[in-house]
Amino acid sequence: MQQVSSFHAANEISNPEHVVTSESALETDILIEFQNVYKSFGDKPILQGASFKIRRGEAVGIIGASGTGKSTTLRIAAGLLAPDSGNVLILGKPRKGLLSDSPDAEHLRVGMVFQNAALFDSLTVGENVGFLLYEHSNLPAIEIKRLVANGLSKVGLSGVENLYPAELSGGMKKRVALARAVVSDDSDDSERVLMYDEPTAGLDPVASTVVEDLMRSLHSDSMAAASMSMQTDEEDDTSEALASISGADAHAENGGHAIHARHGSNGAYIPHHHVGRMSGISSYIVVTHQHSTIRRAVDRIIFLHKGKVVWEGSIADFDTTEEPIVRQFAEGSLKGPISYV
Ligand SMILES: Nc1ncnc2c1ncn2[C@@H]1O[C@H](COP(=O)(O)OP(=O)(O)OP(=O)(O)O)[C@@H](O)[C@H]1O
């Protein structure tokens, strides 16, 4: 995966004309792309030409000073907010308006974990986690309860279905919000991107680590399942080939879930080669100010400043770059291009 480690390079990679050849092999892995996105609230410009790509398999952190448009970026990427101008490409096709308008919504779903967990206080944990399924599926209640229990067990919270949010600690609320974002109908084989807005804000260091590791494991479990699915598909292909050699009328189903994955330096799965799309959580984006979250749950950083991407790179690049905006931010210095009034 090419890492961009300077302001200049960050701009170049956003421009397809400047994409280097080694990069183009990965262009089919782009799930979400912002091209020169602008967004204002009233007469206040927030995003001012933001361009970046999110690829299959990535764990991306969006960081930058307060008020620079990080949450706005997430909400636009999630299709909850429309840009004023510029393009948002989903699986390579421009999204016309909000996510619900997109013909690709059925192929790429976005789960959002909002700041402060955003649970409904008057609903139980189980009703919160199963909310979308209760509202938007025809599944029987008993099946939704099974899916909810499964989602809660993934975040280590089995058995809390009947509690109310007020009875949970801050860390537990965030984990319930994670369960709500990952719970889905078993028959839903959509590819998904999870968006986390400040998932560890306000948590003690240990509770933060629990949430960060969950973000990682929910993602890598999905990638591992996709990898196994790919192997099964290959076995199916082999059976189909054998069947056709023997003249039988076999037609193995190949859902196109072919994805080879390998472990990155920090244990994250990185796509290596793929055909078609996968199901489950392909990638996640996290907006955070927490250094622990950046280091534990992120592989690549997109740095926003004044509504633009001014730097992209790996965690290692983040520590060594001489880009003044990034250095000032990383060191928490009062001196530099970032100014507060
Ligand atoms: N719906 C809205 N209406 C009006 N102004 C808004 C709206 N949403 C965001 N803003 C403003 O846009 C600016 C950017 O907000 P945003 O939440 O995207 O920043 P951020 O980089 O995530 O900040 P922080 O790190 O402080 O959370 C802020 O000044 C905010 O008040």
Structure description:
Residues 32-331 form the ABC transporter domain. This is ABC transporter domain-containing protein. Keywords: ATP-binding, Nucleotide-binding, Transport. Pfam families: ABC_tran (PF00005). The chain is an alpha/beta fold and 341 residues long. It folds into 2 domains: 30-99 and 194-232 and 279-340, Rossmann fold, CATH 3.40.50; 108-189, Rossmann fold, CATH 3.40.50.300. The protein has helices spanning 7-14, 21-24, 70-77, 125-129, 131-136, 141-154, 170-182, 205-245, 291-297, 315-320, 324-331; strands at residues 30-41, 44-55, 59-63, 85-90, 93-94, 108-113, 191-197, 258-263, 269-275, 280-287, 300-305, 308-314. The chain has a 6-stranded mixed sheet, sandwiched between helices. A hairpin with a 5-residue loop joins strand 8 (258-263) and strand 9. The model is unreliable at 1-25 and 236-277 (pLDDT under 50). Bound molecules: adenosine-5'-triphosphate (ATP). Adenosine-5'-triphosphate binds next to helix 3.
